[in-house]
Amino acid sequence: MTRLAHYFVASMLFFYTPLMSANNQLPEIGTAGASALSIDKEVIYGNAYMRIIRASSKMTNDPVLSEYVSELGNHLVAKADQVRTPFNFFLVTDNEINAAAFLGGYVKIHTGLFLYADTESEFASVIAHEIAHVTQRHIARSIENQAAAQNLSMAGMLGSLLLGIANPVAGIAALQATMAAGIQNSINYTRANEFEADRIGLRTLAEAGYDPSGMGSFFGKLSEKYRYASKPPQMLITHPLPDTRVSEARARANRYPHRFIAPSLSFQMAKARIIVRHGTMSPSEALAHYEQVLERKQYRIKEAAEYGKALALFALARYPEAKTIIDALATTHPDNLFIIDTLTDIDIAMKNYDAAIQRLSAAQTRYTNNQVIVLNLAYALSEKGQFSESAKLLDRYLRDKPNDALAWGQLSKTQRRLNNVAASHVAQAEYLSLHSDYRRAIDELHSAYNLTENKLEQARIQARIEQFKQAEQELESLN
């Protein structure tokens, strides 16, 4: 198979079941809204939403954090009931305390949620709540109700919501006034929706092995902090939090057997990574913060604080000091993706390419086709000048994961460094299509077509152009 042919692919810890009393059986509203919006339609709109979000929001393009939130989210989904769609969890860099779900199982998580949650159970409680909004089809019902209130068809309402993401001014005009630019602001859950999402989310949280008191704890802190605030966080605007929600979450958690949940190293490392790399502190401020935390022992897990210090040192280009800390952490946590990723960053910065490649190649046997390992290894190979090996690795990975925009972007750069200009254009086209930028994607494919003499590859490129044209028309028909 030729080089270009590979790129024409179709685009797209522990478990615990608590003993439950009769009082813990939860009422479920069910699947109202199904007649107006089918599951298939939800998925179509959800996919369009994700492509637009990639283009219009500040996505947190950090494979290690993406892996963490996906693993945690899917662990919760595995214990949820009435799951009808795949779930996709993604991060945006925003210090606002918020998370929000959309049609088709897409759950957006703000990095600010990490900064406010003290434990993994608190963090997971918010994600479990959003999962319940999806499984109980609260979003479909909310859109249906708003469409009726504004005398719009469901298609018109959904199209306006998508338009509001892509172009807030046009979106508000299309809705003739009152909806906010962000799509989550446009979805108004009823009081019953919120209580149901709490109840079902808490059950999912407990059955997934987290501390069910995490929900009440998080709600309580949020309620207390912003009780008299003139400008509450976005989460309290889209998810009002009366005292009854806090008290009910605590009461329900008390019905589960009490058990000790050890602090999560992965969560605390994720939190440190966000503080240093995606927060508001400068590298110097972050270093001072973690030095103080370590000196005063103000940490839940010392190793996570050391990790945060190493990240700050790396950001200040103090590579040997950062390496000393990370090497020590790696002796006790050799398979930890946070540590493997940071070791790669340090090795590449210090031009220790062979060490990085050897470590990552070994890790591939433990983490098959893992995004963190593959993208790190491809980058290390490319930095060493082994562009062909890097391109082959990314090519194999993308056959299984064609919706990885980061990998397509990296492949495009690698192919250009190999002087495979046509293949670079093709990879860039796939990257752009995942950001709903079909016109520029088509332009890239036209450039690839003009640089290709092989008739079979030209036919494949032409077929992909037609697919992108159809996808663009379908997106436009949605809004």
Automatic annotation (TrEMBL):
Query: EC annotation?
Result: 3.4.-.-
Q: Where is the signal peptide?
A: 1-21
Q: How is the cofactor bound?
A: Binds 1 zinc ion per subunit.
**What GO molecular functions are on record for this protein?**
peptidase activity
Listed A to Z, the keywords are:
Coiled coil, Hydrolase, Metal-binding, Metalloprotease, Periplasm, Protease, Signal, Zinc
InterPro entries, sorted: Mito/Outer_Membr_Metalloprot, Peptidase_M48, Protease_BepA, TPR-like_helical_dom_sf
GO BP term, pick one? proteolysis
Q: Report the locations given in the UniProt record.
A: Periplasm
Q: Which residues take part in binding Zn(2+)?
A: H129, H133, E194
Q: What class of enzyme is it?
A: hydrolase
Principal subcellular localization: periplasm
Which residues does the UniProt record annotate as the domain Peptidase M48? 67-252
The record's listing under Pfam families reads: Peptidase_M48 (PF01435), TPR_19 (PF14559)
* Annotated coiled-coil segments of the chain: 442-478
Q: What does this protein do?
A: Functions as both a chaperone and a metalloprotease. Maintains the integrity of the outer membrane by promoting either the assembly or the elimination of outer membrane proteins, depending on their folding state.
Q: What is this protein called?
A: Putative beta-barrel assembly-enhancing protease
What species is this protein from? Agarivorans gilvus
